User: Which sequence fits this backbone?
């Protein structure tokens, strides 16, 4: 979504009623953020909406980006939020070989997740369940971690469910919503 | 395993990514130097012989070769764009212009800072704070933007610019006077 460098468009204040709605929607999508949401998006602080190219809305607190949304698609967290609260989002892991493709904005392909270095839910190599115990459906938001790395490198929307991915082991897996070093990552907010 | 929440993450001062991802960019050497200076313990962890071998062992030989080629390409690209930026900086000038608006009323216009990678909106704000005066970004007829500061502050701005923005060589900063009327005497 942000393969190119972008610059921020107009900024406007989010009305408090709308702010409540956004907060509720975020919690509905990411219930594990419940205990952190007040810290991320304090009720008393003014949330701003910054317009980005291609009908993307970025929600910010001062000059800190928090979440973004393309039209009425799911709300996605900025990667700095993911880095702060890594346990709050469903996550998968790619193998080391796939990292450089993801960081160049390529669509994530299934083999990066199904190979020995990758992790999907219910992975025998993942007894603690870091990558979840339940299969994820197409359309769900996932955070992508990487083999040998502690921090996530991407957040996107699954194009194929994880159960199917395990069967076919090929094809596109996930839309590149936002990845390390992309236009959103490099965006400077006044 | 109680980790502190929110997790504190260090980001690379050179490429802005978490340092464990610096290896995929084109500025690895600079990134490594930065980390060594600012976060020595993290540097030790990420750039140890062991860590490097561990990284390599998870890739097939073929993939290693591809990755190596890829990173060479990236490094060359980064070096080229750095060279271009350097050339652009060498050839760019920051102009600080004293303009008489009314009798004995001056404004100071500053042009050319964006060529040195500065966000001029932010710089305008900083000028305003630093000199406690009005400072704004205005369009230049014919394209581009300049910072307009209220008051005759050429010399102060000169000093401030040279001192604050080390990337701008002093030779590239120039004070000029925009004489609309002939100066008295
Ligand atoms: Zn770096």
Assistant:
């Amino acid at each position: 979504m942000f393969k190119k460098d972008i610059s921020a468009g107009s900024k406007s204040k989010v009305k408090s009623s709308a702010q409540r709605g956004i907060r509720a929607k975020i919690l509905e999508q990411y219930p594990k953020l419940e205990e952190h949401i007040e810290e991320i998006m304090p009720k008393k602080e003014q949330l701003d909406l910054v317009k980005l190219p291609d009908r993307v809305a970025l929600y910010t607190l001062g000059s800190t980006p928090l979440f973004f949304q393309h039209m009425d698609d799911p709300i996605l967290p900025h990667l700095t939020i993911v880095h702060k609260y890594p346990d709050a989002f469903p996550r998968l892991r790619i193998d080391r070989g796939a990292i450089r493709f993801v960081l160049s904005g390529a669509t994530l392909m299934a083999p990066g997740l199904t190979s020995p270095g990758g992790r999907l839910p219910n992975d025998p190599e993942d007894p603690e369940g870091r990558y979840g115990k339940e299969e994820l459906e197409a359309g769900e938001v996932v955070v992508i971690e990487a083999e040998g790395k502690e921090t996530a490198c991407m957040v996107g929307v699954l194009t194929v469910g994880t159960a199917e991915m395990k069967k076919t082991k090929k094809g596109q897996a996930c839309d590149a919503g936002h990845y390390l070093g992309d236009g959103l990552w490099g965006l400077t907010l006044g | 395993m109680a980790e502190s929440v929110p997790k504190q993450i260090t980001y690379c001062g050179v490429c802005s990514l978490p340092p464990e991802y610096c290896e995929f960019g084109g500025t690895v050497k600079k990134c490594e130097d930065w980390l060594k200076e600012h976060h020595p313990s993290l540097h030790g962890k990420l750039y140890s012989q062991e860590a490097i071998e561990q990284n390599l062992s998870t890739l097939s030989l073929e993939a290693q070769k591809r990755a190596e080629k890829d990173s060479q390409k990236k490094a060359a690209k980064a070096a080229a764009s750095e060279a271009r930026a350097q050339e652009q900086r060498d050839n760019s000038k920051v102009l600080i212009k004293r303009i008489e608006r009314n009798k004995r009323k001056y404004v100071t216009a500053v042009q050319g800072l964006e060529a040195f990678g500065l966000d001029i909106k932010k710089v305008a704000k900083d000028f305003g704070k630093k000199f406690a005066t009005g400072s704004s970004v205005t369009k230049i007829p014919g394209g581009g933007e300049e910072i307009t500061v209220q008051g005759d502050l050429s010399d102060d701005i000169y000093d401030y610019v040279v001192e604050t923005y080390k990337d701008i060589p002093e030779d590239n900063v120039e004070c000029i006077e925009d004489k609309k009327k002939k100066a008295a005497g």
Observations:
- Helices of chain B lie at 28-38, 40-46, 49-57, 61-91, 120-131, 154-164.
